[in-house]
Amino acid sequence: MAHSRTARRRWSAAIGLTGVAALALSGCAQSERGGETGGGQVGGTLTFGAAGAPKLLDPFYATDGETFRVSRQMFEGLVGFKPGTAEVQPALATKWESSADGKTWTFTLKENVKFHDGTAFNAEAVCVNFNRWYNQKGAAQSEAVSQYWLDNFGGFADTPDKPSLFKSCAAKDPKTAVVELTKSTSQFPSVLGFTSFSISSPEALKKYDADNVVASGDAFTYPAYANEHPTGTGPFKFGKFDKANNVVELVRNDDYHGDKAKLDKVVFKIIPDETARKQALKAGDIDGYDLPNAADWAGLKSDGFDVKVRPAFNVLYLGINQLNNPKLQDLKVRQALQYAINREQLVKSQLPEGATVASQFMPPLVNGYDKSLEAVKYDPEKAKALLAEAGASDLTLKFYWPTEVTRPYMPSPKDLYGAIAGDLQKAGIKVEATSKPWNGGYLTDVDNGVPDLFMLGWTGDNGTAHNWVGTFFGRTDNRFNTGKSPWGKVLADDLAAANAEPDEAKRTKLYEGINKKIMTEYLPAVPLSYAPPAIVFKKEIQGVTPSPLTDERFGSASKG
Amino acid sequence: MLRYTIRRLIQLVGVVLVLSLLLFAWLRALPGGPVSALLGERATPESREALTKQLGLDQPIFVQYVKFLGRALSGDFGVSTGVQPGDSAMEIFLQRFPATIELSFLAIVIAVALGIPLGYLAAKRRGGWFDNLSVAGSLIGVAVPVFFLAYVLKDVLSAALGLPTQGRQDAIGATRVTGFFVVDGVITQEWDAALNALEHLILPAIALSTIPFAVVFRITRAAVLDVLNEDFVRTAESKGLTSPVIRRRHVLRNAMLPVVTTIGLQTGALLAGAVLTEKVFSLPGVGQALAIGFERRDYPVLLLLIIMATVVYVVVNLLVDLSYAFIDPRIRTR
């Protein structure tokens, strides 16, 4: 087996070399190829096993990882992320600066960039995109359609009761776009690196009726742009989405403005079953897939596959809802829960290699992470003492855990639940357990405040603290019902103030302070762990950098 | 005959109506729902409320049903929220149905091609080693769960035969005409594409065929045994007819009636098996859509797919009933 693989590699290397020689002869236009990684073969097809079909092909309307995975090969935003990190770096904008109040942002754009349809990328195109987002109408304003805009920019042009972060966009000259905001936010400009806010060709948007989302009975239908004509500036162009065969094909954009892609094609084969993905990789049907089960990592490695572990960019927490049991409004009781759980053991025995105990509600990569905070040590005796002090020695809690789901932060909910419940019982807390399917009642019950304790987590969209603690505690009627405690409102206000602080250094300080308070004075829930998810490829696939944001771009990939 | 067919078709309409009402209520009574499935961890109280309203799920079930019925009468069965959001449920059905038909058809062909001759042979040599062996084999066929067999086939046979283990076809740029990939390959004379699609079907079809094979085999055996004991066979023998003639004209023909009924019933039951087989082999068919739809609470798709499965089941069995007339002329004259 090993022998034949080496032989094959040599053979394809030979083909690749011939290809390189041919390209060298054909002129210097291709000289940029292979610049970034220095090596790798030109040509070939990367076949990736996707867990689901992309919802659609227009990333602006997407909320699902599979759409983003496909889109980010075809589209680019004004800013991007440095491979392997959550740090913002230039993309379609080469540089940017903000006014002192953080409300006016001037982007200098890359020149000589063309969309896949041959039209020019310039400041006007940028503004067409911003205005498109801001002017969504009717059904397109739905949570299920424009969720990322709603989450990050708020309202639309015709929703005065729901203010928007966006105010205006002006093309000062072809390579300078000026974006005005209504207030300062920590989210800018990194929010523009979200795949949702990729820049589309204005011509194509118009031609294919991109904004024509229709509410049809009990769901939404999308226009031709989102179905068949995504048109960006990225290293790959849309080929086709063969729905009957569950395959998406992208082809190399030979007019790409940067380092051109080495691969001829990227094919996404949709294989919903995880075991089937693993088998398909082993059988050679696919070259890689995302989120291999942590239990399979060692096996895949020993079979010669390249298991790339991403930096942990998620958090798993034990949610505490203060709604139904007044005892849970007592800080001592919540602290007792924290002392009662043996998180070190949990991380060692239930989570993938490289997982760590969470000291706060966001991982170290996020700006505002307080390095001085240390996770409290497991101490069941202290937990009992705290419960006794609070007069809650006979505490009984409704603990919900989900079935039919794995999340990067929660590979095996059942085992995690078992370990946590065991620890709680050791500290004298009675647990009434209920398990429900993730989409079959679990999320609904958690959102409706049915359980006292629940397991949930978050995978970050970007490296701003607002995307983490702001999402969890930025309001008082959240899943923890922090509004039941007097500090709930204070916390929400502090988070809003920190988010609005334009000065980055000051903002970081504010978030560090908030994180300290959350952990020492409020403890709305118990952060448990940061777990690194993985993505696996055949050894022949090179040039893919695992990203904490799952922002893996195949433009730099090669099949050697 | 025509009146009988029409009556059965009218019955079908009634069945579909009642079923749609039951399903409609039942799906909405399931815990969870599309709102949670769509919003996931990102849900906020407002977003949940807004989406519930937008999907019309805040209205009484009866109102929702009447609206659905109104649209359905004009051919609009709603739009998917989970399987392929934005596509109509009908589109999804039409895209995926050919995959399931190809798979089921091949499975039935395998089951019949093996089940009838083996059943006949076993009956002829009743009590012999061949009979005992094949009866035991058919028992295993019924007893082994489809998904288990599917995994075994994938791990063992695929490696040995080099057959693909997932999907309908490699991305080889085949032309699509009917949606039946094998047929398309033949029509367009893209023989590679036809062969590629056929190869993808072999392992799942074998997995799916085991239960119908076992059932067809056992029914054939029992029916042939029954017929062999009939007076008319003895009469034919005593008349001095040669045994191939007796077999063809008298035994097999008379034994076919229960066998054909069974094939009809099994064809309907194949959909249940297809859910598992399509899952294991990642075949984008109706079964896979049902599984994904259920997981994501895609009401319109689930509703339409289950109704269509019912229609297919009823129609297949109607065809089976009609075929009796050809097998047994006495029914025609009745």
Notable traits:
heterodimer; A: 560 residues; alpha+beta; 7-stranded mixed sheet; 6-stranded mixed sheet; 16 helices; 23 strands; disordered N terminus; B: 334 residues; mainly alpha; MetI-like fold; 2 domains; globular
The CATH topology name of the largest domain in chain B reads: MetI-like fold
CATH class of the largest domain in chain B: Mainly Alpha
Q: Can you name the CATH architecture of the largest domain in chain B?
A: Orthogonal Bundle
% residues in beta strands of chain B: under 5%
Give the SSE layout.
The complex is a heterodimer of chains A (560) and B (334).
Chain A: H1 2-26, E1 45-50, H2 65-74, E2 79-81, E3 88-90, E4 93-98, E5 104-109, H3 123-134, H4 147-153, E6 166-173, E7 176-181, H5 202-207, E8 214-216, E9 219-221, H6 224-228, E10 236-242, E11 247-252, E12 265-270, H7 274-283, E13 288-290, H8 297-302, E14 306-309, E15 314-320, H9 331-340, H10 343-350, E16 356-357, H11 380-389, E17 396-403, H12 413-426, E18 430-437, H13 438-447, E19 453-459, H14 469-473, H15 487-500, H16 504-522, E20 525-530, E21 534-537, E22 541-542, E23 558-559
Parallel strand pairs in A: 1-12, 1-13, 17-18, 17-19
Antiparallel strand pairs in A: 2-3, 4-5, 5-7, 6-7, 8-9, 10-11, 11-12, 13-21, 14-21, 15-19, 15-20, 16-20, 22-23
Helix pairs in contact in A: 9-11, 15-16
Chain B: H1 2-29, H2 34-39, H3 45-54, H4 61-73, H5 89-124, H6 129-143, H7 146-161, H8 181-187, H9 191-228, H10 231-239, H11 243-280, H12 286-295, H13 299-327, H14 329-333
Helix pairs in contact in B: 1-13, 5-6, 5-9, 5-11, 5-13, 6-9, 7-9, 7-11, 8-9, 9-11, 10-11, 11-12, 11-13, 12-13
